[in-house]
């Protein structure tokens, strides 16, 4: 692979090991994204083995989500303070240990504790991985390739988790959905330790903003838990409402504190930038629609169509192929030629078109005629949009802020996932209940009643998917109006030679 950085005079030769480093960063990211879905498939088996009650089983997912979502900003700041490579390796080792604990769990407390620990170390790992890419790949064309690979993994890894989770659960047992993380983590940590060379001079050694850490963590935990609880207990539940009120108050106090303290956890310059703000918002909205869809399609394929876990996982392959194609082919090839919004906006609209096809789902819908083209469009659109979003979210940011800027990308995804699961599930459940109330009276036999229940389930899914279509259209509108960065200015990058060496060679973007 040619080193484009060496062709331009005045630019320091790039680290020759950066492409090897990308392999280990991508492997770690894949592990974290896999974990978000792989455990869902194994949950029924684990629940039965460990004697977890129906009321408590949600904590297998919630414990991870709360720790991961609540600590992401803190994890990003730790990466800036300790060094990205050190934080990355520590996150990997801790994640492996927590996964081993989960696989060896003998009761529900051990399982919940291991999932919370996975979330803690994931919150260190994810921002460090993205910020390493941001500071190691600064040439515009190379950055496009690197973030194309990263974007494909970030978008398609969840679907890969469904396939892997199905295989492990069906042919081994649920414990392997935890143990499989260990070789991933060991290889990625060893590779990172020996290969990654973090550029010098990018640390943020300012004192840690303790009030900011406390307020942001409590605020994000309250927000994520509020949406998680709304899914199971309803939106009018007193604790649900209390969580939302608390999160608004805590996050408002966090913003006030960050505007006043000398060394803020999240410098407001990171989120008040028009481009980054637009990306965080549009990315979060897109994830809302994607997370709900994964859940609905999994249930539709297994319960309505009668697919096995393995067959369900393979049914998601077109989406993975679309993600990889959109990210590494369309996005990577066009990112240095057109403005990011011209990839993000149309990308979200193509995904919305795929989602629109899924509103036509019925009990007897053909996989080949309906689900296959819909998932291909979804993958292509999301892959095309995710790649420039991931890159621009950390581009042009000060090196000392790259960790926390990366954490904001993960935070928007995590909060979006929590909102999507709760909001779209609630809409689906309401539509299902309404359909059953209207049609069950006409079902005289048991088989007719079962048919009504399946029809009601599909009606619920399609009702929620209509909302997901609208959310994606709003995400596209935000990307097209807020994100106003131009295409990367190649000559500006070349002319920046000497100054860039002192600032981790952050690329100049034309506005």
From TrEMBL:
The keyword Mitochondrion does not apply. Keywords: Antibiotic resistance, Cell membrane, Membrane, Transmembrane, Transmembrane helix, Transport. The keyword DNA-binding does not apply. This is MFS transporter. PANTHER family: BLR6921 PROTEIN (PTHR42718:SF46), MAJOR FACILITATOR SUPERFAMILY MULTIDRUG TRANSPORTER MFSC (PTHR42718). It is found in: Cell membrane. Its main location: membrane. It is a multi-pass membrane protein. Residues 21-487 form the Major facilitator superfamily (MFS) profile domain. It comes from Streptomyces phaeoluteigriseus. The chain crosses the membrane at residues 21-43, 58-75, 87-105, 117-137, 149-168, 174-196, 208-227, 239-257, 278-301, 313-330, 342-361, 367-390, 464-483.
